[in-house]
Amino acid sequence: MDASAEIKKREALFNLAKEIGANSDCWLFPTEKEVRGFLGTDSIVIVGDQPSKSPWDESHPHRRIYYDTLKKVGASNVHLTDLYKRRGEPSSLKNLLPHQFPKDFPEHLKFFRREIEILKPTRVVALGMLAYKLLRVYVPELNQDLGQMWHFSYVWQSGKSHLYEAHMKRAIWKIQF
Hints:
Elements: H1 3-21, E1 44-48, H2 61-72, E2 79-82, H3 105-119, E3 123-127, H4 129-138, E4 146-149, H5 152-158, H6 161-173
Parallel strand pairs: 1-2, 1-3, 3-4
């Protein structure tokens, strides 16, 4: 991607981030050193279901395993986002029927579709099974380019950090081992 196209994408994402941030209790993946977080402009988008309510400072073990592995696999500039941007309890969207989703869920789908419009991704990777299911149902136009990877909290809790790098490479880059 040429520099001017990347600057335009980054500016559009920055403006969208300000708009999303104007909503109370919304959260976006932060930039940290090489990892661009929400401001990543590569043609790959990694999508979680929704941010948790827990703090996510730079030393948090989930952040460390996720961001450090992204750097290791050469994915520092992928776009990191959530389908629903408002903080909630882990997996709080899991057991809800469509008519029980938060009233602002359609607004968050619009934000997400704007991200997709800005980035025009060649690959979308769901961060965990819940995100995968939500994307398949609510953003079916992405199904052709949709992959799925382990959620960083699963990796940490299951002790599979030694397998995460290979798993992430397969999910993002479609590398077969």
